[in-house]
Amino acid sequence: MSEENQEQITLVDEDGAEQLYNVLFTFQSDDYGKSYILIYPAGAGEDEEVDIQAYALPADDDPANPSGGELQLIESDEEWDMIESVLNTFLDDGSIDPDAAKENHDHH
């Protein structure tokens, strides 16, 4: 996987520090009428285990070109189950080493 065309976004953590994340992928769910973005910390090694985080994009955001609007936490277990299913399908198609990725179920 080449780093040059990897989309990246910056998030500000609870301490106000900026963290750079690579965009794993975005997708739209017709069931929930939302778009979702899955990200993982930039700078992780190829075979390093990473925390994959998922957020809902703001309703007016374009999933193909996220504007950096406020990402929304995913709060329902049904949405998490759906995201896990999409993620597992994505990992199973061989584009990412499934051993190098683990889900971050960070319910705030």
TrEMBL record:
<comment type="similarity">
    <text>Belongs to the UPF0473 family.</text>
</comment>
<dbReference type="InterPro" id="IPR009711">
    <property type="entry name" value="UPF0473"/>
</dbReference>
<dbReference type="Pfam" id="PF06949">
    <property type="entry name" value="DUF1292"/>
</dbReference>
<protein>
    <recommendedName>
        <fullName>UPF0473 protein DCM90_09100</fullName>
    </recommendedName>
</protein>
